[in-house]
Design brief:
This is ABC transporter ATP-binding protein. With 326 residues, this protein is of the alpha/beta class. The chain has eleven helices and 14 strands. It has two domains: 11-234, P-loop containing nucleotide triphosphate hydrolases (Rossmann fold); 238-300, YebC, transcriptional regulation domain (Alpha-Beta Plaits). It is 32% helix and 28% strand. The strands form three sheets. It has a six-stranded mixed β-sheet, sandwiched between helices.
Length: 326
């Protein structure tokens, strides 16, 4: 029996693992994914957040049947990812799109539509529509070899949109875009969500994830270390306060006998962060030591702080940036 696409979640990943052979003799291994579980609901914008080498791109490549997993299962609308009919419901923007550079932007997007079974006047109208949506109408007759990186990113998004897919899978969609382009990209993604499109995208640009996602998963070392809505993840953190102290040096503040989350020496002042439960004891210690409290306010816990805490908990904070891009 053929499963109706509405009967199953758009994406289901269970126990997914992937091991790559690397080195000159392929005698070393890199575990890009280790028992990953994910489920993306219909109409959601679901983000994958993580450092380089976290497994974000590998997950997307497995979903697009570009890489075969070493273990576990990955399903699109309840069907294996190697079924072409299922993948036709997906628009895909790879991390580093490389369209044939001697085609014009319009020819490239038209070709993408033809490969999806579109044609005739309907295709012409749709190509014009998506090129306008990504602000590339002015360059549609230029060969892609004359495009900047940001222009290539835009026309690659247009090809992902041309077939009106039920799902968009976007790998670093704002890479190479200027601030205006990033804002336009975010607006396009939100507009697609409003039309009922399911969106999975991965990024290491935290503001984009925070602005867009209904739910997100933080990946570190091929494992999911956090998952939930942005609000759930942030509200689950222990509340803390930010205090600015005058009249005491940094070493004196550190020796007050109160556990501090962070400290920073400023010009004649010390800014520190402490758990809300310890704030009253800290104030008493500061005053007893002859210091003054310049300001005290609730600390806004950010997604960036959650991300860094996830790295720290996983023992990876010191190694971010020196990893294989997976």
């Amino acid at each position: 029996m053929t499963l109706n696409p509405t009967d199953a979640p758009p994406i289901q990943v269970r126990g997914l693992s992937k091991t790559y052979k690397v080195g000159f003799w392929f005698n070393k291994t890199v575990r890009a994914l280790q028992g990953l579980d994910l489920e993306v609901g219909a109409g959601q914008i679901y983000g994958l957040l993580g450092p380089n080498g976290a497994g974000k791109s590998t997950t997307i490549k497995i979903l697009m049947n570009l890489v075969r997993p070493s273990g576990g299962t990955a399903l699109l609308y309840g069907q294996p990812v190697d079924q072409a009919a299922t993948r036709r419901m997906v628009g895909f923007l790879p991390e580093n799109p490389s369209p044939y550079e001697y085609l014009t932007g319009r020819e490239f997007v038209t070709l993408a539509g033809q490969l999806c079974g579109m044609g005739g006047h309907e295709l012409d109208l749709r190509v014009k529509e998506v090129l306008g949506a990504v602000d590339m109408s002015h360059a549609e007759k230029l060969q892609i070899r004359r495009y900047s990186k940001g222009m290539v990113q835009r026309v690659a998004l247009a090809q992902a949109l041309v077939s009106k897919p039920k799902m968009l899978i976007l790998d670093e969609p704002t890479s190479g875009l200027d601030p205006v382009g990033r804002r336009q990209m975010r607006d396009l993604i939100l507009a697609e969500r409003d039309r009922g499109t399911t969106v999975l995208f991965c990024s290491h640009i935290i503001p984009d994830v925070e602005a867009l996602c209904d739910r997100l998963a933080v990946l570190v070392g091929g494992r999911r270390v956090r998952e939930g809505s942005v609000q759930q993840l942030l509200s689950a953190q222990v509340p803390s306060v930010e205090v600015v102290v005058e009249g005491l040096k940094l070493d004196q503040v550190k020796n007050l006998g109160v556990s501090l989350e962070s400290t920073q020496a400023l010009d004649g002042r010390v800014m520190l962060q402490v758990a809300d439960a310890d704030s009253q004891r800290l104030l008493g210690q500061v005053l007893a030591a002859g210091g003054r409290v310049n300001s005290l306010q609730a600390a806004k816990f950010s997604l960036e702080q959650l991300f860094m805490d996830a790295l720290k908990d996983s023992g990876r904070a010191s190694s971010v940036g020196g990893e294989i891009n997976t």
